[in-house]
């Protein structure tokens, strides 16, 4: 069942459609990623879902409610960690948790929540003295304190070291496993690939692809990558036949070690083997792999994340 439904949403600033007809729905219990380059419209989109911005066109429903017209009820259902959140420097972790708990009619007990997030030994520490990772964990705790059905996490791991980022990923999975739907904004491929059940790729205000991470990779042209060192140099006509094989998107010239790379599809592999056999060429150091989500993203958006 869809818990968030975004339908043809548009937001315009100074005549520019920064969100331009975005539609997607998020199923209950999934981690849904919004992935896109800087300025693609990700934050604007999720802030419309949170009812913090009002779309110029289109509709949004969170558990069947309109985030603007039913703002109070949506706020109780939806926990948000905002991008670049800040708290007052002198507020302690305990004070922040108590303060945020007071905003909700039925908050969870913050003590076990703090313990789960590894904050129980930091309760008397002031916000300004927390490390980046501890601040992020506090923001996750604050997003969960109202016992939400959905939590929105925007660029949660930006600025964290690889260890803290991995710890945060584990936490996000635990949140999902606890039955909370997660809407995750990110521009980290590894994060999206590791965590998300499905991903909407947003580019210049539009959804350019929406699929599972594996599905996005399959959608990218040249998603099957064959690399090999031919036992003899391939001639121009040989290369032309290689390029003409079914599904081939590109053939990269030999690297320093003489390895050629063919970007194709699953349908490329068998004809590739037959072609080499027909040419009497052996493929040394043959590797057949899938392209990374990184490369799929480049292909889908035509730019780097
Ligand atoms: N209040 C505003 N007034 C004018 N322009 C805005 C406003 N908010 C956002 N924009 C513009 O809309 C575009 C999309 O911004 P948004 O923050 O949604 O992108 P994003 O995908 O979240 O980017 P990032 O990854 O850099 O956070 C940007 O070009 C931004 O400058």
Q: Could you walk me through the main structural features you see in this protein, from its secondary elements to its overall organization?
A:
By secondary structure, the protein is α/β, with parallel strands linked by helices. It has two domains: 2-211, P-loop containing nucleotide triphosphate hydrolases (Rossmann fold), CATH 3.40.50.300; 219-301, Alpha-Beta Plaits (2-Layer Sandwich). 34% of the residues lie in helices and 28% in strands. A six-stranded mixed β-sheet has the order 5-6-7-3-8-9, sandwiched between helices. A four-stranded antiparallel β-sheet has the order 11-12-10-13, with helices on one face. Strands 2-1-4 form a three-stranded antiparallel β-sheet, with helices on one face. The site of adenosine-5'-triphosphate has 11 residues, from helix 1. Residues 13, 18, 36, 38-44, 187 line the site of adenosine-5'-triphosphate.
């Amino acid at each position: 069942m869809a818990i968030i439904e975004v339908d043809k949403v548009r937001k315009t600033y100074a005549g520019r459609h920064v969100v331009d007809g975005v539609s997607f729905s998020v199923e209950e219990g999934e981690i849904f990623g919004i992935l896109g380059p800087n300025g693609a419209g990700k934050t604007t989109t999720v802030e419309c879902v949170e009812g913090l911005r009002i779309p110029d066109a289109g509709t949004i429903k969170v558990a069947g409610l309109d985030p603007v017209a039913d703002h109070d009820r949506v706020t109780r259902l939806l926990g948000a960690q905002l991008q670049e959140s800040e708290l007052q420097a002198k507020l302690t972790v305990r004070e922040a948790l108590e303060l945020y708990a007071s905003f909700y009619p039925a908050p969870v007990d913050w003590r076990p929540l703090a313990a789960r997030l590894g904050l129980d030994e930091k309760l008397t520490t002031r916000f300004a003295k927390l490390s980046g990772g501890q601040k992020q964990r506090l923001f996750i705790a604050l997003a969960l304190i109202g016992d939400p059905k959905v939590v929105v996490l925007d660029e949660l791991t930006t600025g964290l070291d690889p260890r803290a980022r991995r710890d945060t990923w584990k936490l996000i999975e635990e949140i999902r496993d606890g039955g909370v739907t997660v809407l995750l904004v990110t521009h980290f491929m590894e994060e999206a690939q590791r965590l998300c059940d499905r991903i909407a790729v947003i580019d210049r205000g539009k959804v350019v692809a929406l699929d599972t991470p594996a599905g996005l990779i399959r959608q990218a042209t040249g998603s099957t990558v064959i690399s090999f060192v031919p036992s003899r140099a391939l001639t121009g006509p040989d290369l032309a036949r290689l390029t003409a094989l079914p599904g081939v998107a590109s053939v990269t010239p030999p690297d320093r070690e003489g390895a050629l790379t063919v970007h194709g599809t699953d349908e490329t592999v068998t004809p590739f083997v037959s072609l080499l056999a027909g040419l009497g060429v052996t493929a040394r150091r043959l590797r057949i792999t899938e392209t990374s989500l990184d490369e799929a993203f480049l292909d889908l958006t035509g730019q780097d994340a």
